[in-house]
Amino acid sequence: MYLNKDLSAYTDAEFIDFINQLNNPMDYLLQKNSIIPEISKRNWDYRNLIYDESGILYLANQVILEQNVLFEKNVPFPSQVGLFYQETLSPSFSNLLENRALNGKRLVTSRNNANQLFLGGKQVAIIESNQLSELTADDLFIFMQIGEQIFPELQTSLKSCNLDQYIIFTRKTGFRQYGYFEVY
User: Fold this and answer.
1) What is the pLDDT of residues 48-91, one digit of tens each?
2) Quick one: which of 92, 154, 157, 169 has the most CB atoms within 10 Å?
3) In Å, how far are 57, 76, 146 from 66, measured between CA atoms?
4) Cα(first)–Cα(last) distance of the chain, in Å?
5) CA dihedral of 154, 160, 162, 165, whole degrees rounded to 10
């Protein structure tokens, strides 16, 4: 299936809106012939939306664009306490909370990072990017790294806040993948 639209004429925001209006699951030929080529032309990274080796986008929810990387928006917290939660998510985050270097520190992250990492609630405060300058030495910000990119951008963020330490969560690429935390 091909579209009779020139997707390159769309602004980035319009193209994101267009993607978000498509029915999911999205038609394979539509992806292969129109959507993925346009994403590639725009030099956007969409590895976080690929479910398996087929290279096809898996869009369970709407997407957002941050630093030229497409992310799933409003990722639901795992509904079942199954193997993923017991063997991956819970131990990784529990080990982070037990780290002695974090004693007395408040964990903070951005809305998108919290969404991608299943964080939030009482254990992690969520702030907007314009609130980074309000962080103090008692705060630990959780950045997210995918490949070589860090979200929000590390050096710019560190210049605007007073952090003695911070955390980088290195996320595996792929649809709803997890990874590991490191304290710096």
Assistant:
1) 888 777 777 877 788 999 999 999 888 776 654 444 544 555 56
2) 169
3) 17, 19, 12
4) 48
5) 0
Which residue type does 139 have?
D
**Three-state SS sequence of 79-124:** CCCCHHHHHHHHHHHHHHHHCHHHCCCEEEEEHHHHHHHCCCCCCE
Q: Give long-range contacts, CB 8 A cutoff, 24+ apart: 94-100.
A: 95/181, 96/167, 96/181, 96/183, 97/123, 99/183
* DSSP 8-state secondary structure symbol assigned to residue 42: T
Contact 62, 87 (CB under 8 A): no
Please write the tens of the pLDDT for every residue from 116-130.
877 766 778 999 878
User: For the chain, what are the domain ranges?
Assistant: 7-72, 83-183
What residues have CB less than 8 Å from 53, skipping those under 6 apart?
none
Neighbours of 62 (CB within 10 A): 15
Who wins on pLDDT, 134 or 22? Answer: 134
Token couple for 97: 């909370």
CA–CA gap between residue 184 and residue 162 (Å, rounded):
14
pTM of structure: 0.74
